[in-house]
């Protein structure tokens, strides 16, 4: 029962391959008779590949749809916790009511201004709010997490009083430790006013660039401060240590944790002791605080220190001992490379003070360094492939002919990415490196068979035609099996599939186009090399000398 089925399948495939071989043989004969046209067409194709490559966006790595959305916003400095809490609850309610795909929504109002959050460099204060959204699995929703995040972003923009906002497709905990935004511009200078002015100009310019979102300036608004300056002479006269003055002020204002804890059931809560909020905001009460003295006599804080109202930055950033301010932006709807190119043109057109230096950091710098390294790896891969083939063939020209199949793998990559709308990323470049070692296989088999047929006494063009006809089917099957082997990775909608899709698409496109071009171009180049280079006297002498 199975044998007839196999015969029918064999007959269908045999007719298909026979038709392909007839078409290919005709094309090969035409190509050998019109070699200049074939070479010119190949050069034109490479030129179009170069133009197409420049139109494709670039990114460091694709952002996966994890199903987590993190929303972080900041209100003006000094905003009371109750105000922040009210807005957090409003955002949580909006997400619960308008996002049917949401599984879980939670909010955090205020970040403690001491302890772990400050130690690791996180924003802290009663003006900071965070909301997290956990979505259902990708297969259970029609919208991507990026589309939902953009809807949330557009709604939050309508809320008054928000100075900074970040909406990321990531869990809130992970978002806290991601550091800078994808587009990160660093402004260096000694004059903080000049640096801040340039930062504000850049932020305004970024707002005009399509694809930017959540633009922020790291130099946060100055906030009111109460400065306590010890009078050293008075303190020494009353036997008060200046360190005790600062320690006392900190204990009363920030408080301290007692050695005892409060237990409720199985939960353990630390106890922090400090002044009430209305007392912390009163200069009069602050001045009446008691400072310990060497004699043990109580001394009022106002007797040994002067208090004055000032304003100051919440934090001062330094890198390599230089003050700097960063302007950050998330990217939405365009690639990081395209947005960065527009941002560079905008910065170059700006007039900035000579003492101010602007540079790009974050993922922009990482992408530039990574792409340069991957480019070197591609060149190294080509060199190694050539050296291996030269050692196997014990010749230099045959490997040179085979290398002509590699550039057109890039043509396939460009075509595939233009069709799918993907961006060039580290994964795509990894696919190109893989192609360097894969696409030469077809050319190796073809050139090797041409040499075999010629060794039997066939003329050059007859050998090329015979080898092309006999090697078409193995070349096609090899390419087809590798193509369909990568297909599941290219079309997968599973968790994290976005990360590896560029690799699969680049390999699939490169394999297919390289095979189609190589099966015509490699025989043509081989014939040119044999008829115009290898017949020269010095090559003939070298070949004769190499024979045992």
In short:
The chain is of the alpha+beta class. It has 21 helices and 15 strands. It is elongated, with a radius of gyration of 35 Å.
General description of the model:
With 548 residues, this protein is an alpha+beta fold. The protein folds into three domains: 2-33 and 395-546, Multidrug efflux transporter AcrB transmembrane fold (Up-down Bundle); 68-222 and 320-363, Alpha-Beta Plaits; 223-312, Multidrug efflux transporter AcrB TolC docking domain, DN and DC subdomains, CATH 3.30.2090.10. The chain has 21 helices and 15 strands. The chain has helices at residues 2-33, 35-55, 81-98, 116-119, 145-156, 172-176, 192-207, 232-237, 242-254, 277-280, 283-287, 301-304, 336-349, 362-393, 397-402, 407-420, 426-438, 440-455, 460-491, 497-532, 537-546; strands at residues 68-74, 102-111, 125-135, 164-168, 183-188, 212-217, 223-230, 256-264, 267-273, 290-291, 299-300, 305-312, 318-319, 322-331, 357-361. The longest helix is centred in the last third of the chain and has 36 residues, at 497-532. The two termini are 57 Å apart. Residues 115-121 and 538-548 have low confidence and may be disordered.
């Amino acid at each position: 029962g199975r044998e007839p089925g196999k015969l029918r399948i064999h007959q269908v495939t045999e007719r298909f391959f026979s038709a392909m071989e007839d078409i290919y043989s005709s094309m090969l004969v035409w190509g050998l008779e019109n070699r200049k046209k074939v070479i010119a067409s190949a050069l034109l194709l490479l030129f179009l590949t170069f133009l197409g490559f420049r139109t494709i966006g670039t990114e460091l790595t694709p952002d996966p749809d994890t199903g987590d959305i993190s929303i972080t916003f900041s209100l003006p400095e000094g905003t009371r916790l109750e105000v922040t809490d009210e807005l957090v609850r409003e955002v949580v309610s909006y997400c619960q009511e308008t996002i049917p795909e949401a599984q879980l929504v939670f909010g955090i109002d205020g970040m403690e201004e001491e302890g772990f959050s400050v130690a690791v460099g996180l924003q802290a204060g009663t003006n900071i709010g965070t909301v997290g959204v956990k979505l259902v699995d990708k297969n259970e929703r029609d919208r991507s997490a990026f589309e939902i995040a953009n809807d949330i972003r557009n709604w939050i923009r309508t809320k008054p009083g928000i100075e900074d906002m970040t909406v990321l497709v990531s869990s809130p905990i992970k978002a806290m430790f991601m550091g800078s935004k994808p587009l990160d511009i660093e402004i260096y200078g000694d004059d903080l006013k000049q640096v801040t002015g340039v930062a504000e100009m850049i932020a305004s310019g970024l707002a005009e660039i399509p694809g930017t979102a959540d633009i922020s300036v790291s130099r946060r608004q100055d906030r009111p401060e109460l400065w306590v300056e010890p009078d050293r002479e008075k303190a020494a006269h009353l036997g008060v240590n200046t360190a005790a003055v600062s320690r006392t002020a900190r204990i009363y204002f920030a408080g301290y944790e007692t050695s005892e804890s409060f237990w409720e059931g199985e939960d353990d809560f630390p106890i922090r002791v400090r002044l009430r909020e209305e007392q912390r905001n009163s200069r009069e009460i602050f001045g009446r605080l008691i400072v310990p003295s060497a004699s043990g006599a109580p001394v009022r804080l106002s007797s040994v220190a002067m208090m004055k109202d000032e304003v100051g930055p919440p934090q001062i950033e330094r890198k390599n001992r230089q003050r700097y301010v960063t302007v950050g932006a998330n990217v939405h709807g365009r690639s990081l490379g395209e947005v960065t190119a527009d941002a560079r043109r905008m910065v170059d057109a700006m007039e900035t003070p000579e003492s101010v230096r602007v540079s790009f950091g974050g993922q922009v710098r990482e992408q530039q360094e990574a792409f340069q390294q991957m480019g070197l790896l591609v060149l190294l891969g080509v060199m190694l492939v050539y050296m291996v083939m030269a050692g196997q063939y014990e010749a230099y020209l045959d490997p040179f002919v085979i290398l002509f199949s590699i550039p057109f793998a890039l043509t396939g990559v460009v075509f595939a990415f233009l069709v799918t709308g993907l961006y060039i990323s580290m994964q795509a470049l990894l696919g190109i490196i893989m192609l360097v070692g894969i696409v030469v296989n077809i050319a190796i088999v073809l050139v090797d068979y041409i040499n075999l047929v010629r060794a039997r006494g066939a003329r050059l063009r007859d050998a090329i035609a015979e080898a092309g006809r006999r090697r078409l089917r193995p070349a096609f099957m090899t390419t087809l099996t590798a193509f369909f082997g990568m297909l599941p990775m290219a079309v997968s909608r599973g968790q994290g599939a976005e990360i590896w899709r560029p690799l699969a698409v680049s390999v699939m496109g490169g394999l297919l186009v390289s095979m189609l071009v190589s099966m015509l171009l490699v025989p043509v180049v081989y014939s040119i090399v044999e008829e115009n280079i290898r017949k020269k006297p010095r090559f003939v002498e070298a070949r004769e000398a190499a024979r045992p």
